[in-house]
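Researcher: Structure prediction, please.
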Amino acid sequence: MKRRTVLGLLGGAVVAWPLAARAQQAKPVSRIGMLSLASAMTPIEDAFRQGMRDFGYVEGQNLVLEYRGAAGRADRLAQLAAELVAANVDVIFTMGSEATRATRQATTSIPIVMTSTNAVGLGFVASLARPGGNTTGLSMLGPEVSGKRLELLNELIPGIVKVAVFWNPNDPSAEFSLKETQVAGEALAVKLQILETRDADAFDGAFQAATREDAAAVILLPAPLMSRNAGRIATLAMQSRLPTLFYSDDSAKAGGLISYGPSLAAMHRRAAYFVDRILKGANPADLPVEQPTKFDLVINLTTAKALGLTIPPNLLVLADEVIE
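Model: Predicted structure follows.
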């Protein structure tokens, strides 16, 4: 073979190899929509990003995240869900019951991975084992652990007689949590003072009513309104000298006395598993909905001392985190 021919073949190979290599190494870019009531991605929601990285998805390389936050306005969720549908994303990750409901109303074809309370009761899925439709993900046990929260207050304040319960009727899942709390109240012989808090302006009046009726503590039922206003609620609780029990650890860190509930960070990170499965061809209708396996008990000792409360040693031993 002539030298010129050999060089020509080698030169062609040099040109062809990088092209073939790039074609082989190129990965499809997945576009994931994210819908939340929050205004911007929170540390809890950022856990989803970490979960995606665990499965090999890197923003700017093979992953694009389209985040839409409603800044606490539930009335904006429908519009934001429609934007994600129009953007033709591959999957929509919805954070919370309200975001899930809005997205399900916006599309029946784009797969939805949710974190929600009582997904079956709210009609988001047919069953946990076989969701059906285009929605799967994680269903929080918010209602089921409401009784445990009341038991914790009973341990903290033995012989407690009355507890004020703040709830937001506008939240789709709040009614389930309220019913579970009422059942627990009857079992523990604790009288419940049910107080509606539909917006942030309602908290002042709710604390005044709780104080007026001699409530010994306040339970905040799961709803984004409560977690968004955790700092303000903690301040009002301190002024009223009332212990508060929340459902998320960030609320205890904001000044609440105790929080107990599923680890939201762990759930958001696990949601990436469902997204990955769907991107690889799984049908959401056949992906069983999971329930949380990790629960966090957080106690704020600084708040306890300010209220003049002594936390029983058995509760401190059980705590996943103690804030001092």
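Model: The longest strand covers residues 30-36.
Researcher: Thanks, that helps.
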